[in-house]
Structure formats: C-alpha cells, structure tokens
Amino acid sequence: MSMTTFNLPDLGEGLTEAVLLSWLVAEGDTIAVDQPIAEVETAKSAIEVPSPYAGVVQTLHGEVGETLEVDKPLITVAAGNDGAGSPAGEDAPGALSYREEERAGTAVPEENQSQGSGNVLIGYGTSESANGRRRRRKRQVPASAAQAAPAKTLLATPGAPAQAPRVSSPLVRKLAREQGVEISSLTGTGPSGLIMRSDVLAAVGGAEGTQPAGTASSAADTDSVTGLAIREQTPVTGIRKAIATKLSQSRREIPEATVWQDADVTQLLDMRAQLKGSGQEAPSVLAFLSRFVIAGLQKHPELNARIDSTEGGETITQFEGVNLGFAAQTPKGLMVPVLRHAEQYSARALHAEIRRLAEAGRAGSLSGKELTGGTFTVNNYGVFGSDGATPIINHPEAAILGIGRIMDRPWAVNGELAVRKVTTLTLAFDHRVCDGGAAGGFLNYVATCMENPATALADL
User: Fold this and answer.
1) Catalytic residue numbers?
2) Euclidean distance between CA atoms 60 and 412, whole angstroms
3) Strand locations in 24-140 (E)
4) CA–CA separation, 264 vs 242, rounded Å?
5) Same structural domain, 295 and 369
C-alpha cells in the first residue's frame, strides 16, 4: 500500500490561496477519482475540489476556516497495489498536464477519454486535444467504471451514494448541512429547478439573514478598548479580503478626482413606460446608462484606459472596445461582473446580460473570467436609496460612473418651474489619465443622453 499526497491545485487567475469552507470526506473514507473532497473559497468564488486519486483517506491537511496555500498538502490517500492511487491519466501515454484545462466542465477529447477524469477545476483538470481546441460533448463513462466509482454528481456522504440535486453553489450545500436540511428533499425555485440559498432557509423557517456571517461570541467576550461585549468577529478572508485589498489599493495608488451632474430623466422613464405599455421588454435604467456610457467612452477614450507601471515609468494604455463592469451586491459582498466587448450590445442585450451576470453573482457561480478584465465600471447605488456617492475606482481602471436614486424635484423647463424626475450622476476618474475637460465632457454627454434618450439612441 502506497501513500500519495494531493496538494491544493493551481486555482487559476493568479490566485495563491483559498479558505477551507468544509471537508466533504473524513479520514478513513474510501474515495474515487473525481469525487469532491473539499469546498474552498478563493478571492473569486466558492468551488469544490475533486480528488485525482482513489483510495482510503489517511490525513486531511487543514481545519475548516483555515487559509490554505496553493501547492501545499490538502489530502493524503492510501492506495492498494492496483494503482488506484494514481491520478487519472497521469501515467497514460499522451495524457496532458492537469494544469492545461482552464474551465470546469470542458469535455475530454475522445482519444483521451480513458486517460482523464473529465472533472476539472480552474487551472487543474484532465487533458485536451493536441490542437488546443475543446469540443463540447457528453462524456462517455464505461459501465465498469461507473460501477467501480461514484460519479461526480454523487454526494460524498456516509452510506449508499445518492444522486445529488442541482444546487446554485457549494455554499448552498454547506448551508443545508449546517442547518440539518436534507437537500434532496427540497424543491428548487431557481431556473430548471435549481436549489437556491433561499430554498434552504425557507425549509428551516429562517430569513435571509439567519446564516451566520462569522464566529459568534458569547456575552462574556468583552472588547478591551471599548469595554463593550463582542457580538461577532468575522475573519477578513476569501472574497471579502479580495474586496478590501482592491479598494485599499485604489485609494493608495490612484489620485482620483470627482465630478457630478444632475440629470432630468423624465423622458427616459416615459419611454420605458411606453415600451412596457406596448408589451415590449423595457431595458432597465442601468442598461440605458450603460449604453450611453459606452457611446461616451468612444468619444472620450481617455477614460477607457488604465495606468501600467514598468521599469521605464508609467504608461497610459487605452483600449479599442469596452469591457464594462457593474457593481453588484451579493450575499458574499460587493462584486463587479464584467461584460466583455459591451460596445457590441444594444440596450436590450445589455439589460439581459446585466441581469444574467447579477443572478450568477448572487448564486456564487461567476467564473474568474466574468470577474476580471474590466476597463470601466458603472454603479447604481440609487437602488439602495442613496441620492449620491463618491464611488471608489475599480483598480486598475481609470474611472467609475455612479447613479443615485431618481426623485421628484423642482426643475426649470422652458423657463417655468415643474416637477421632474431627477437623478445625480457622479464620475470618479484617475487624474493621471485625463484632466477635468475630458471628464466633464464625458459626464455631460452621458447626462444629455439620459435627458434625451430617443435622440441619443437614434445616433447609436
């Protein structure tokens, strides 16, 4: 019997650590290739780590809540002489590196199906075809292999394996275990019956805020500085740590300036009401704002840029095309999903993509690619009841535009006072990439489009 230690794999996107959310197996359990062994949270998302080895679990390296480093031991497996402890495909002729797959769920090439497990993680998985092209196809599993090992969709729980219900994220399974809910008994309310976090909370009669956010302290725990009892302490890890790091970096490195302008959006809201009244889908205010922002960036490309630091100094890099990010509040904190080549989308298409990405963010299913690569960000903090704000630039971008809530306000129309729907647009920009003239010109253009949307859309 040989011992094999599996290290935490390369999680991609430059990530070097992950927080251990939960173990899905215990020491002494017999596991199969591709069986999920742990749930970890990176700065991007929560994911399951599958085992490339089969055998008996000897040692679990790490405690729940601990931060684990990439390429450090995760689990030790004891394998018999039948080779069950070899990682799938590692010794097979022609098999490729585990780090050559970049997206979960990529199909295994036909010529290598007997060599790879087919279950992949970002930066870790089975082989791909020699020409680098991936083909989407159903994975063919031999009957003998299916009998010998549980499939990827089986829950790693003691006793007879059962078909795992479809859930929105590993955190939903974790919540169900914590609350003592049998997830297979739930009926999902998400798309195609997907089980959501709210379904688990509804089963225990809880509310959205019942899940513990950190480690609760007893009344006996007292803060030495204030003398007050400590209600809760939450380690800054995972996604929350990534948010804090990026915002701090933005404040440290970017000499930002802020300009703002009020805009009468009465016509925009009237146009949306007319679309709804005619039975058509009406893009959201954020979608219209995004469409006008993209047009504004084409007129003022200085803001669709970033500062690159090299040994020779700093360089301003401007881009052809816009990767538009938008701030989205999720149960895990603030995220900025990115819509790549947003200039190719109409207002309706932007509305659909923004909604899709926001739902994926709340479900915890955004990929690393969908959270990186932005060149400009929009932020609708008006949905939280804020009249205005000074948004922090999403480093390393050069600017961010925020919109406050829309209110009835007195407004001069053709020399007479009227009650109009008014909002405040705020632009924070990196003063290194442009001066106030370009920033003010961009903001005024966007505000004018919001005030006269029909005229603006006719030119887009």
Assistant:
1) 431
2) 69
3) 30-31, 36-41, 46-50, 55-60, 67-69, 73-79
4) 37
5) yes
